[in-house]
Amino acid sequence: MKEYANNFNREINGKKLSENDLMYYGRVETRRTYNFRDKNVIENKKILDKINSSSDKNEIKKLQESLQKDYFTGDVIKEGSPKGGFNYHVHIVVSRHDNTNDSRNKISLSPMTQYRSQNSKLNNQVNKTIGFNRDVFFENAEKSFDQYFNYRRDYSKSYEAHKKRQEQKEFVN
User: Fold this and answer.
1) Is the Cβ–Cβ distance between 113 and 96 less than 8 Å?
2) 21: left (phi over 0), alpha (psi -120 to 50) or beta
3) How far is CA 102 from CA 3, 16, 24, 37, in A?
4) What is the mean pLDDT of residues 90-112?
5) Residues 23, 97: contact at Cβ < 8 Å?
6) Which InterPro entries match (predicted)?
7) Do 116 and 132 form a contact (C-beta atoms < 8 A)?
8) Exposure winner among 42, 59, 101, 132, fewest CB in 10 A?
9) In terms of Cα–Cα distance, which of 126, 127, 135 is closest to 159?
10) What are the pLDDT digits (tens) for 113-168?
11) Is the pLDDT confidence value at 66 over 70?
């Protein structure tokens, strides 16, 4: 959250925005399920429809063997079925406003703003550079995580590699 707050380049009453100025909470979950958008669910639904409409036992057997199964449980993958394996994950929900109780002085914070790196007049402060640079945020958050947990990230799993792959896709299209 420290990196998130720093990336807004904002001040509250002359003090740089910090993680203490943000309103957020996190929730730890231990379970994941397959949803209707998962590729395996979509493929299995087509196969299950064919199985239900077929009367040929040999065809049904071949179709049942082609169903996608969960790697850990071996169960057929369907919408809503639990994913096997270690599924701890965290959801962080961040308010669009700072944690000020005074509604007249509350500032809006959005990482999706298009108002980045511009000189502007904000809260009677002339020529303050404000905005949110998502690239810088992702790079700094990745570095902070790797340092804190002493994690040796493979380049192929880095944000920089992800960005290059995206640029190559855009270039091809």
Assistant:
1) no
2) alpha
3) 25, 18, 17, 42
4) 84
5) yes
6) BfmA-like (IPR043766)
7) yes
8) 101
9) 135
10) 765 555 555 555 555 556 788 888 899 999 999 999 999 999 999 999 999 998 88
11) yes
Strand 15-16 vs strand 11-12: parallel, antiparallel, or unpaired? antiparallel
Residue 93 has pLDDT above 60, yes or no: yes
Instruction: Give the burial string for 99-110 (b: 16+ CB within 10 Å, else e).
Output: eeeeeeebbebe
Percent of the chain with pLDDT over 70: 90
Per-domain residue ranges of the chain: 2-30+86-172, 32-84
CA–CA gap between residue 142 and residue 1 (Å, rounded): 12
- pTM for the model: 0.63
Query: What's the whole-number mean pLDDT along residues 46-67?
Result: 94
Burial 56-91 (b: 16+ CB within 10 A, else e): eeeeeeebeeebbebeeeeeebbeeeebeeeeeeee
Place of tokens 């809006």: 108
Helix (H) or strand (E) holding 90: strand 89-98
